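Sorry, any thoughts here?
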Amino acid sequence: MTLDGNARRTAIIVYLERQSGPVSGTELARQFGVSRQIIVQDIALLRAENRNILSTNKGYILFHPQEKQKGCTAVITVNHTEEQALEEMLSIVDYGGSMLDVFIDHDLYGQVRANLVVNDADDATEFCHKLSQSNTKHLKELTEGSHYHTISAPSEKVLDLIRKELQEKGILAD
């Protein structure tokens, strides 16, 4: 039985709510018996209805800001080599923090942002592996390495510990 568009979009929300992690467009297409392009269109329509669906490097995730932000958030400015990316992420997640996004301030386009949602060492390792295999330019290349992350942690104390470790490693640019 094929669902009409409205019913399918409702079912996509229910499906994403039940998942513990991101779901690829290919998996959603298989689940609902439609093409991946139809899923992309459905996600766009759901976002237009103010549904908080994030696109991560691992797929779509229903984002509940109150759940993902573990108490306190901060925006940090960093500048590092590609080889230091994993070290940066592990410095955050090893303290129980999360790296929610990456963004830059571009002279022409303004703020350019990508959601990451790196919550643990597995997420960090997987992202850095994909980064090393990618042929695309990284956002930091547009700003001579300088970029920003929104990070979350259980407390201000933990945020301070993360900042201190990143500073000691020469990654924090604040």
Q: What stands out?
A: The chain has a mean pLDDT of 85. The beta strands are 53-56, 59-62, 72-79, 98-106, 110-118, 146-153. Residues 88 and 165 are 9 Å apart (CA to CA).
